[in-house]
Amino acid sequence: MHLRAMVLERPRTPLVMRERSVPSPAAGEILVKVAACGVCRTDLHVVDGELPHPRLPIVPGHEIVGRVAAMGEGVAGFAIGERVGIPWLGYTCGVCPYCRTGRENLCDRPLFTGYTRDGGYATHTVADARYCFPLPERGEDAEIAPFLCAGLIGWRSYRMAGAEGAQPQRAEANEAPLTALGLYGFGAAAHILAQVAAWQGRRVYAFTRSGDSAAQAFARSLGAVWAGGSDEMPPEPLDAAIIFAPVGALVPVALKAVKKGGRVVCGGIHMSDIPSFPYRLLWEERHVVSVANLTRADAREFLILVPQAGVRTEVTRYPLQAANRALADLRGGRLQGAAVLIP
Hints:
Distance between the termini: 16 Å
Number of strands: 17
Radius of gyration: 20 Å
Order of helices and strands: EEEHEEEHEEEHHEHEHEEHEEHEHE
Structural class: alpha/beta
CATH architecture of the largest domain: Alpha-Beta Complex
CATH superfamily of the largest domain: Medium-chain alcohol dehydrogenases, catalytic domain
Largest sheet: 7 strands, mixed
CATH class of the largest domain: Alpha Beta
Number of domains: 2
Shape: globular
Helix content: 10-25%
Number of helices: 9
């Protein structure tokens, strides 16, 4: 039996369709027949050579929804035909200081799906069963796929911005509540997170490219109380801002928009250089932090919350062989919501 895959053979070159033998899963692995794979901005960074040392040739893609087709020795908790999700985090060592202290997202020797192990731009893929998640039968495959990274990294960014629990929390003595949240870059991650934050009663302010009235209307339709260009100031100071756009120049812009003690979270794996800015923007105990990868606990928590919040995704479907067109549309800012490949 053979699989088809869109393969990156050299950075900054188009993906090419290749046919390969379907691999047999090793001990602890599952073979998954891919039903849908989201196209993430991280894939674009891999293809465009902005992330160092990919394993080449590599099959990109880490927002994978599919069905278990075969299981290696020792796999427990899954059944043939079961619907599963495969995320970015594909393996951790379990023994480094980060893994031993509950921070597997910072593992010293990780493997990442679609970057250092083959991903889901294919008809089949193999994954470490410990890093896969059972998925309920409700919802279409293509609409679920963006949850596996855009949703998860948005959720982790949201928690780092100060969100806790299902409703805005009363502040501790030295901690302000998160009630006004800014989202810079209204793409796949933001369009999911806006719905969660609005459902939890927070005021969401969406920042798009200047003049992008369609994206601003889209943001308001998903619960944002205000939407404007990233060059505009929100109508009230923000408790926190999350930057999803890979644009370093937005860091001082967001710092200017958050109140004293506010937090700016950089939610991407890659960003252009941050320009110098006056210290007064950081002063008064403002914070700038980054988010790296995700943990399996993040995924379990988020996937439980999604149906409670009634989150829906806006997706544009592409056939597998059109992966280069999907990446070009993402690169060119022509998507509303998320792109998804269908094998």
